[in-house]
């Protein structure tokens, strides 16, 4: 019998972290690898936010805080939710954790019993199914299609719901596809949820501010106020504020659920880093002026990557509304042979061959629950993107 817990055997390590690690190893060995695997902006944290962190250290704000966050940050989050999402919350309805990841994990740990089902639209962020499994629940994957731009239809949602469903996890704009639901598309899904009062919705609004071509972000509790009492609205500062290393995420929801999440946090990590919390206060209350400027850059990169990948025979690359990912299909390349003699049987073989033969690291689609595709993160320099896409073009042109 293994010394390790049986629960652990149900989960796998994060494949996105695995790709990033492999690319880093090859780089360290002297190879000129371009990594398009990591899901973090290449921008530095804005200066005013860094200054707030430094000021917090200087002022001695370096001690334990309340387990789920300082009041000043909870107030800043309430103000943000009102300003950006027309949602009214009080500080006792807010939970702050060590990144969006811990917030989602706490919520699942706080609510799932064995056999409880969680509907996860695919393609999904890699961590959702494994977090559900770790919490003792059962992930139920609801597959969307490329034809519908990777967005779940009301019928597909309806088909995934059973009497055992506890949550729908809803992520828009999406990692890995960048797909964002507009108001009508989201209303059609919340209408389905209104017919199933036992189902709650856990939103993942991490990419809220990363939207292009006038796409307007919306979130379930805003679109259907009747869902307010069974919605946990989750968000964080990692992506939009280029604060991935600071580790601050948050959730807003019913008091009882927030209290349950606090209990878990108080017995696991205690509070998120005090210094990071003060920096996050500045992120949410301070100037938001750099957001449109960053989005201009992201949009330019998205357009560059979409046009260079779309030019490849056998690749279809939809134009996403937001985030910093594209999720092209390689359906037209399956069965072909690379210059080194590898047969592209599936997207994992494609991604491995691309790394080994063309020095470009991407993440294969099977990791996100929809194949045959791969995910490109365009949160890297224009220069690197151009070179990487040229390499992908040459790699594909050499296929026979
Ligand atoms: C969809 C999505 N949700 C949550 C997270 C986690 O964010 P954080 O770094 O704040 O834990 C990520 C990060 O990759 C993400 O892509």
UniProtKB/TrEMBL annotation:
It catalyses: L-aspartate + 2-oxoglutarate = oxaloacetate + L-glutamate. Its EC number is 2.6.1.-. InterPro entries: Aminotransferase_I/II_large, AspAT/PAT-like, NHTrfase_class1_PyrdxlP-BS, PyrdxlP-dep_Trfase, PyrdxlP-dep_Trfase_major, PyrdxlP-dep_Trfase_small. GO terms for molecular function: L-aspartate:2-oxoglutarate aminotransferase activity; pyridoxal phosphate binding. Pfam families: Aminotran_1_2 (PF00155). GO terms for biological process: amino acid metabolic process. CDD domains: AAT_like. Keywords: Aminotransferase, Pyridoxal phosphate, Transferase. It comes from the Bacteria. Its cofactor is pyridoxal 5'-phosphate. Residues 32-392 form the Aminotransferase class I/classII large domain. Belongs to the class-I pyridoxal-phosphate-dependent aminotransferase family. Homodimer. PANTHER family: ASPARTATE AMINOTRANSFERASE. This is Aminotransferase. It comes from Shimia litoralis.
């Amino acid at each position: 019998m293994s010394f390790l817990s049986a629960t652990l055997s149900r989960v796998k390590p994060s494949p996105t972290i695995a790709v990033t690690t492999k690319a880093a190893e090859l780089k360290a060995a002297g190879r000129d690898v371009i990594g398009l695997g990591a899901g973090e902006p290449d921008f530095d944290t804005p200066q005013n936010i860094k200054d707030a962190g430094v000021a917090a250290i200087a002022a001695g704000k370096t001690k334990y805080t309340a387990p789920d966050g300082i009041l000043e940050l909870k107030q800043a989050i309430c103000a943000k939710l009102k300003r950006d999402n027309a949602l009214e919350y009080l500080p006792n309805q807010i939970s702050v954790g060590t990144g969006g990841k811990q917030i989602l994990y706490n919520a699942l740990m706080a609510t799932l019993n064995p056999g409880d089902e969680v509907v996860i639209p695919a393609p999904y962020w890699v961590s959702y199914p494994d977090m559900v499994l770790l919490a003792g629940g059962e992930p139920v994957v609801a597959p969307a299609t490329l034809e519908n731009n990777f967005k779940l239809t009301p019928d597909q949602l309806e088909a995934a719901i059973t009497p055992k469903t506890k949550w729908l996890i809803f992520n828009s704009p999406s990692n890995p596809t960048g797909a964002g639901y507009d108001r009508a598309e989201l209303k059609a899904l919340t209408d389905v949820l209104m017919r199933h009062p036992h189902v709650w919705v856990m939103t993942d609004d991490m990419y809220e501010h990363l939207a292009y071509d006038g796409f307007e972000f919306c979130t379930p509790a805003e679109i259907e106020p009747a869902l307010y009492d069974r919605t946990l609205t989750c968000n964080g500062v990692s992506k939009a504020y280029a604060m991935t290393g600071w580790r601050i995420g948050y959730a807003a929801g019913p008091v009882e659920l927030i209290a349950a999440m606090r209990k878990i946090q108080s017995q696991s990590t205690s509070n998120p880093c005090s210094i990071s919390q003060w920096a996050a206060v500045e992120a949410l209350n301070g100037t938001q002026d750099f957001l449109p400027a960053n989005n201009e850059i992201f949009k330019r990169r998205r357009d560059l990557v979409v046009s260079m990948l779309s030019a490849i025979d056998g690749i279809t690359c939809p134009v996403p509304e937001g985030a910093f990912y594209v999720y092209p299909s390689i359906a037209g390349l399956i069965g072909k042979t690379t210059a080194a003699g590898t047969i592209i049987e599936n997207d994992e073989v494609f991604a491995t061959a691309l790394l080994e033969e063309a020095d470009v690291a991407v993440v294969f689609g099977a990791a996100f629950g929809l194949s045959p595709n791969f995910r490109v993160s365009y949160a890297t320099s224009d220069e690197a993107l151009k070179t990487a896409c040229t390499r992908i073009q040459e790699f594909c042109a050499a296929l026979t």
